[in-house]
Amino acid sequence: MTGVRDLPPFLLLSAVLHVALLMLLPAPNLFRDESELIIVARIQPGELALRRAEEALDAVAGLEIPPPDLEAPRPEPTPKIEPEPVPEPTPKPEPVPAPPPTEPEPLAPKPPTPPPAVEPTPPPVTAVAPPPMAEPSPPPAPPEPEVPPVDLSRRLPVRAVDVALPRARTPTNEVLALAPAATPRRGPEHRPDPASPPPSVADEAARRATQKESRAVLDSLGSQPDASLPMVLAALRRDRTAPPAAAMPGDRDAASTPFELFSPIEGPVHDRKLQWRPPPPEITVYRDADIRLRFDVRPDGSVTRVIPVIKADARLEQAATAYLLAWRFSPVDPEEFDPASSWGEITFHFRLR
Predict the structure, then answer these.
(1) Is residue 15 included in any domain, yes or no?
(2) Is there a contact between 314 and 343 (Cβ–Cβ < 8 Å)?
(3) Residue that terminates a domain, selected from 33, 59, 85
(4) Does the chain have fewer CB atoms within 10 Å around its N or its C terminus?
């Protein structure tokens, strides 16, 4: 049993397999190896197993078992991988020597160029001018439209007179007494009767002379001192014997009335306080009239640049202008004065009583 244990493992494994195979077979005398019997005895314990094992040992006692080949299996030789042969580089061809330069062949002389043929000059051709054509006669001018006669008395220029007035009270009554009665100038709302004749040239000249005289009086009032004012008025007094302008048909009887009726001041000057205005003078009115004036106010409060907006009788316009120039408003700081916001408009109403 000791010899069986000393067997190599692979023999024991082989014996176990053989014993398992013999167990399946009925023949009991097929055991040839002691190791197989030992394995069978181990697998089948008991007396029966021992008995069979002893019989098997007796049967194979005389047999000679060749020793097992314990050489290790030789590994198969690994085939050598031979590298592929690398092709040798092809040698570069030797440079071919350049051929020696050949001398250029001499150029053949060019044939002489024939001179250009001279073309004969053609005779000059004179252009034949076309016969002159008769100028077309201009078309006849259309007849000029008939221009209706224009009444120059209604298209008189309006000029603004900037009068420098002193701060003292202006004697408006005495100034207005110098103005003669002129031909009344009607506004849109006071048109004359179509049956009345137009104003004559003499009346128009008298009206213009009256305007110039009134402007001269106002200029003298602004430049002369108060002491010399009576002398100026006395020099300007003349005989006013001419009767006043005749009343238009349909007018009521004339009346002397002060023009106390005037509308409130409109425009930016409405915000400035009216400090003083003279009493309205007495003036003869031949019919009801409305005169609207636009005026400017200086920083010191004096009125300047009076322009009629709604016109009527020239005599009434001059009276209203002189009366408005005597007004005084509250002064303002010259540095804060804005000319664009220093104007106003007022309407005077002349009514028969």
Answers:
(1) yes
(2) no
(3) 59
(4) C
What is the per-residue pLDDT for 134?
A: 67
Q: How far apart are the first and last CA of the chain?
A: 178
In angstroms, the Cα distances linking 349 to 184, 311, 317 are 16, 12, 11
Q: Based on C-alpha coordinates, what's the Rg of the chain?
A: 76
- Domains identified in the chain, total number: 2
Kindly state whether residues 342 and 219 are assigned to the same domain.
Answer: yes
pTM attached to this predicted model: 0.30
Classify residue 48: in a domain, yes or no.
yes
Instruction: Say which residues have a Cβ less than 8 Å from residue 192's Cβ, sequence separation at least 6.
Output: 186, 248
pLDDT for 26 equals 59
| 275 in a structural domain | yes
Note the pLDDT of residue 198.
Answer: 54
pLDDT tens-digit map of 288-311: 888 899 999 998 999 988 988 888
From residue 344, how far is each of 42, 62, 64, 74, 218 by CA, in Å?
A: 148, 165, 161, 138, 21
Q: Using 70 as the pLDDT threshold, list the residues of the chain that sit under it.
A: 1-7, 26-46, 49, 60-73, 106, 108, 125-131, 134, 145-261, 353
Q: What is the DSSP string of 72-99?
A: PPPPPPPPP-PPPPPPPPPPPPPPPPPP
22 lies in some domain:
yes
- Which helix (H) or strand (E) segment holds residue 304: the answer is strand 303-310
